[in-house]
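Take one record.
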Amino acid sequence: MKILNYLMTAAFLFSVVVQYNDPDPARWMLIYGLACAACVLAIRGRLKWIFPAAVGIAALAWAMTLAPDVIGKVAFGELFEAFEMKDERVEVAREFGGLLIVAFWMAALTLHSLRKRKKAG
């Protein structure tokens, strides 16, 4: 799990950096930064389950607001055809995917933290 957290820390940190040029960088940098912080806390053994749970719920709720603009409207292959923004549909689909990755990893951290807590108590 520690190795996966190092990988996800790097991925989320990279996500924070590439948001710098985004038209609305602050909220994206915040969600990826919080996910990165959760990974760092997990690596250090200081993560409480509530933190990744809250970040994951926020990311999932945000993703659900984007879902109607993505599901059935963007083909999976379009996400990887060009590195730069191809069009707004693809951009929203990539954002949706990023939020789902955050939500998924935060769920994994929450469950892992709860299991550790149960074993300790």
Observations:
- The two ends are 21 Å apart (CA to CA).
- The longest helix spans residues 88-120.
